[in-house]
Design brief:
Elements lengths: L1 E2 L4 E4 L8 E5 L5 E7 L2 E6 L6 E5 L3 E2 L6
Antiparallel strand pairs: 1-7, 2-3, 4-5, 5-6
Length: 66
């Protein structure tokens, strides 16, 4: 999947109230590790960005990448 929305947050927990680990750039690719309702645990693939949770609405399948 890729980050479709600018400034998508990578959160520590599947909640907007949890700590933001970092902001992911639009167009960044991520690997989905698991889904939890409207949240997806992902591993960021750029550098050593680590893993965390993104809201599913901020991501899109690679085949929709412009």
């Amino acid at each position: 999947m890729f980050v479709e929305q600018p400034g998508a947050g990578l959160f520590a927990q599947p909640s907007a109230g949890s700590d933001v680990l970092k902001s992911l750039r639009r167009g960044s690719t991520v690997t989905v590790l698991e889904s939890k309702s409207s949240w997806v645990r992902v591993a960021a693939t750029e550098g050593r960005d680590g893993s965390g949770f993104c809201h599913a609405g901020q991501l899109a399948p690679i085949n929709r990448m412009p």
